[in-house]
């Protein structure tokens, strides 16, 4: 599991949670394909998480960036259904366990072939399954955030022509990035094998839809 952060973000994030309104837009509403807000903008290079670097040494094919692929996918009803089904299915399929209990180490990223894992492992499996379903890997980015408990957390950001959406093991609802209540730290780069900063973008709206 990503280590907890104890710095100024804690105070800022707590304040955001206090002032956040209870009402949010459910990205999976019955009105049809959702529309997110403005895209999450990168703001320069960032250091890759150590456990990501280790994962890439073991499985380099999961980490390569193919710039021939589109940066964003064109979202349609069929693709949205696939994304929702994959997210919900893996949230049910994987048993949440810490890396300490699973591997006996503080932090390890892996594809959970044994049915157990923590947040990063959910993300890697979702990305793999969606890539196998034909979704461009370049448009699916492992993303590090600070969650409502002021802890490091990993989610999958899918970049689309309707905005950037977040697949999360904490909830089945797939929300626009700006409606998760998270602080966005960094994500995979779309231009090289590496990571890019998200500048600590803060999202004050806390989603009301839980698992």
UniProtKB/TrEMBL annotation:
Secretion signal span: 1-27
Keywords: Signal
Domain of life, source organism: Bacteria
Protein name per UniProt: Transglutaminase
Organism: Bosea thiooxidans
